[in-house]
Amino acid sequence: MAAMTLYDKIWNAHLVAEGDGESILYIDLHLIHEVTTPQAFAGLRAAGRPVRRPDRTLAVADHNVPTEGQALGAGAVADEEARLQLLTLERNVAENGIEYFPMGDLRNGIVHVVGPEQGRTQPGMTIVCGDSHTSTHGAFGALAQGIGTSEVEHVLATQTLRQAKSKNMRVTIDGAPAPGVGAKDFALAVIGAIGTAGGTGHVIEYAGEAIRALSMEGRMTLCNLTIEAGARAGLVAPDAATFDYIRGRPAAPKGAAWDMAVAHWKSFFSDEDAVFDREIVLDAATIAPLVTWGTSPEDVMPIDGRVPDPASFSTPDKRASAARALDYMGLVAGQPIAEAKIDRVFIGSCTNSRIEDLRAAAAVVQKAFLEGRLVAPHVRAMVVPGSGLVKEQAESEGLDAIFKAAGFDWREPGCSMCLGMNPDRLAPGERCASTSNRNFEGRQGRGGRTHLLSPAMAAAAAIAGHLTDVRDFI
Amino acid sequence: MKPFTRIDAKAAPLALSNIDTDQIIPKQFLKTVDRLGLSKGLFYDFRFDEAGQEKPDFVLNQPAYKDAGVLIAGDNFGCGSSREHAPWALLDFGISCVISTSFADIFYNNCFQNGLLPVVLPAQAVEDLMAQARGGNHVISVDLTAQTVTAPDGQVYGFEIDPSRRHKMLNGLDAIGETLQKAPDIDVYESARALDTPWLERA
User: Fold this and answer.
1) Can you tell me the distance from the alpha carbon of A438 to that of A336, in angstroms, rounded to the nearest whole number?
2) How confident is the prediction for chain A on average, in pLDDT?
3) Is the Cα dihedral A155, A157, A160, A163 positive or negative?
4) Residues 6+ apart with CB under 8 A from A115
5) Distance from CA of A228 to the nearest CA of B (A)
6) Nearest residue in chain A measured CA to CA from B163
7) Which residue from A27, A221, B100, B122 lies 20 to 30 Å from A414 (Cα-Cα)?
8) CB–CB contact A146 B33 (8 Å)
9) What sign for the dihedral angle of Cα A151, A153, A155, A161?
């Protein structure tokens, strides 16, 4: 048999029917949330179609939940439209027998934090969700992709997805990163190298010693941002770190089933002589702590660099987009990016709200605190754990106390200021050091200026009051 | 879904790369449980200032393009969030075709679910159409049957499209209905899968 990639193997294992263009792919796990499902359930209801596999569907409320007062329940959400959407989800899951972690439940949180945390995300699976950052789950060697609402309806009705197969791309990162450099920087480096459309039409598998050395949290950050490189899915082949992470979680297989599952999972890797349509190789040692300067995640630069000149871009379109981005961001070509004074810091989102992210940020804050430094007086900084369980874990480790003592706001879980659908958002002109995933115009609030960076970099920026090199803090 | 066969419509030029779905429809318009009425949010921050007044400079606010049916855009249109509200808003506004050099994958898929035709053309063709769309006569024809775009000056550009998607689009077919005809295949797959990965069976 011809050598296969990890993606080929998962694809083949889920083929229900093969077509010349589109094939029908079985879906093992369907994660749903309040924003991209109401029209799908309405469509099913109108057509009289049942949900085929409620047991393979899991619902959370994350996008428009407020990050305080969650114990009061959806009925107490002040925003009328958000409340209606949350209550609509509650009704839809109840009517269809779908497991649901409501707002305020310890198990609730950002959908891409909850799936892995519950052990629902497993190697070799196909996973979909009406959210582009579903690519996160690829960290476990699962083919995980974001879909639109019509496709959500299709999966609810058929437990399958119609799709044309993507091409294979491999990104190899060898070497060891310098202190202060991690998964977020790897991801931004990849996006900077290939552009936001660089992965279009591909599934990206990450390989190399720097990837193997990443924790599961780090791999999730990397796969999460794969969509910002244009690829629908990112993959890391499962290994001991993967199995250790899953072991003992609520939905993890137990007893004899565990051994059977691990044997199955171990079959998901790219054959040595598998051929990739495109290969990219990076050296971790050459990656500096990175930050975005513009309004696209590909607008990446090292923290010790200067803002680029729009005239330096290759095409008229790109020059126009860069000039527009600098104007929007309130930056000037040639200025050192580390001089940019910030107003807000956001540590959270499906990219960087897991326990390891909070530990990395807290370590920077604690060291500064012991030197007598707090969050800069003009900065409002917030930490939003990815789930109730992450919040609980962080509190048991005393991380909340460190953040609060230094002047951070410690919030309840949710998507929060990543997308500004809930009360957490930027005011026009505010500049934010953000661990989230998108620096698009208006993403975090109309007129808001977002700089993407790692949790440690965000923590350092909060203390300094401007973007700054985390290497000076560790 | 409304079938798409051919349109003759005004084309509006939007010469920016990487127009993301947050720009096509900002988050405040996603808190709806309906598919309709989203045109009010289309390109909201481009169309309206902070006071909610129309920005006269934006192309879709100009009298010549207010009733545009085709959008000509820069590279990588529709990147970012998976929100299907983006094609819903475009359609609700009256735009049923977008022409670019490239589209982001999820947006591209979402278009086909709704009868919005995304047309991929080479950079030179998009530049030409962009230039002509800026001119006085900016009515173009997009013919899905023939797989052609005809510029105002009569220049014809052919485009490629997946045959099964083209078929569904031309006939306005419902993908779910089509897949449900394969329900026996899904049953067979599920039975086999239950033996391979029994730990995933939660019932």
Assistant:
1) 22
2) 97
3) negative
4) A29, A31, A58, A121, A127, A137
5) 7
6) A21
7) A27
8) no
9) negative
Contact partners, residue A392, CB within 8 Å, separation at least 6: A106
CB A31, CB A58: distance < 8 Å: yes
Please give the model's pTM, rounded to 2 decimal places.
0.97
Count of CB atoms situated within 10 Å of the CB of A430: 17
Instruction: Report how far residue A107's alpha carbon sits from residue A115's, in angstroms, rounded to the nearest whole number.
Output: 10
Hey, how many other C-beta atoms are within 10 angstroms of the C-beta on A102? 18
Q: What is the mean pLDDT of residues A149-177?
A: 98
DSSP 3-state of A256: helix
For residues A49 and A430, give the distance between their C-alpha atoms in angstroms, rounded to a whole number: 47
**One-letter identity of residue A364:** V
Q: Cα–Cα–Cα angle for A3, A279, A269, nearest 5°?
A: 40
Closest partner CB to A317 (pick from B27, B74, B105): B74
DSSP string, A340-353: -B-SEEEE-TTTS-
Contact B72, B12 (CB under 8 A): yes
Q: Of A197, A435, A217, which is closest to residue B80 (Cα–Cα)? A: A197
Per DSSP, the residues of A263-312 read HHHTT-S--TT---SEEEEEEGGGPPPEEE-SSSTT-EEETTSBPPPGGG
Q: Write out the two tokens for A308.
A: 């680029």
pLDDT at A312: 96
A21 by DSSP, 3-state: which?
A: coil
Backbone dihedral region for residue A401 (phi beyond 0: left; psi -120 to 50: alpha; all else: beta): alpha
Tell me the chain B residues in contact with residue A160 when contact means C-beta distances shorter than 8 Å. Answer: 179, 186
**Which of A79, A162, A296 is the closest to B175 by Cβ?**
A162
Answer yes or no: are the C-beta atoms of A25 and A161 closer than 8 Å. yes
The C-alpha atoms of residue A397 and residue B132 are separated, in whole angstroms, by: 63
Q: For residue A167, give the nearest of A274, A30, A298 by alpha carbon.
A: A274
> Quick one: tokens of A436?
């989230």
In the block, residue with structure tokens 């349509």: A277
| pLDDT confidence tier of residue A262, bands split at 50, 70 and 90 | very high
Distance from CA of A129 to the nearest CA of B (A): 9
pLDDT of residue A318: 86
Say if residues A127 and A115 touch (Cβ distance below 8 Å).
yes
Other CB atoms within 10 A of residue A344 CB = 25
**CA B7 from centroid of its chain's CA atoms:** 14
| Listed residue (A159, A128, A160) closest to A144, CA to CA | A128
pLDDT for position B2 = 86
